[in-house]
Amino acid sequence: MPASVRAQAGDTGPRTPTGETHPVLVELFTSEGCSSCPPADAILEKLDEFQPIAGAQLIVLSEHVTYFDHEGWKDPNSSPALTDRQASYESEVGEKESFTPQFIVDGDKEVRIERLNEMEAVLKKAAAEPKIPVRIGEVTADAGKPSVLRAHVETDVNSERHNADVYVAIALNHVESQVLHGENGGKRLEHVAVVQNISKIGKLPKGKNFAQDVQLKLPSGADLKNIRLVAFIQEAGGKLLGAALHKPTS
Question: pTM value?
């Protein structure tokens, strides 16, 4: 059974072993106004929870777009910036226009919900590609400004042929939503790693490393225990060069 289908069914499959793992960034472009999205949301949650690809650390991000917001339900986590981010990927993966749900793996590979049997092979291939190590140091709330998060982000040397940018995504670890109208009206939806903001915090030139203390603005009213951070390195064309995850401790 393909890992993606195992994840959808709730089967844990093989766990990622202890020791060295290779990060793989899995972005899901989704919307609470899209009736096809809840199954994809559930798959992303299973990938995050069960980690079904041996030797890989699947780092997931749920990115809610805006173009369903006029169909009867405004997704409370949708953002024009995430809509633009998805649009920037389409030429890279050979699509003429954006749609939901859409999985983007490591910035340059696509998996459609109707071709879910391809997920395992795509994830394994991404896990086999070399990555630049990324580390997120201690994460703390600013004592004087509780709406500000402080963290240290660093990378190893960029041995690739191209320069890259360093980003940090702030995401809500878990979100539940009661949808009142639109295609999912009456459904209670659950999401994991719901992106609130993606910030470019610096550049990583070829032959250099990166190390920086960063200040990040938390979403209004956010509970620090429900915040996860994802730091990642990405080339202009979309290719992911490295990533790291900081999750709240239970």
Answer: 0.91
Length of the chain: 250
- Nearby residues of 115 by Cβ (< 8 Å), 6 or more positions away: none
pLDDT in tens, 99-130: 999 999 999 999 999 999 999 999 999 999 99
Domain count within the chain: 1
pLDDT band at 16 (very low <50, low <70, confident <90, very high): very low
C-alpha angle 42/20/230, rounded to 5°?
A: 50
Closest of 248, 246, 241 to residue 25, by C-alpha: 241
Task: Quote the domain boundaries for residue 238.
Answer: 3-246
Q: Distance (Å, rounded) from C-alpha 63 to C-alpha 154?
A: 24
CATH number at residue 108: 2.60.40.10
**pLDDT, position 249:** 76
The token duo for 68 is 């369903």
Q: Which two tokens stand for residue 28?
A: 């899901």
Q: Are 23 and 59 spatial neighbours (Cβ–Cβ below 8 Å)?
A: yes
Strands 56-64 and 22-30: parallel
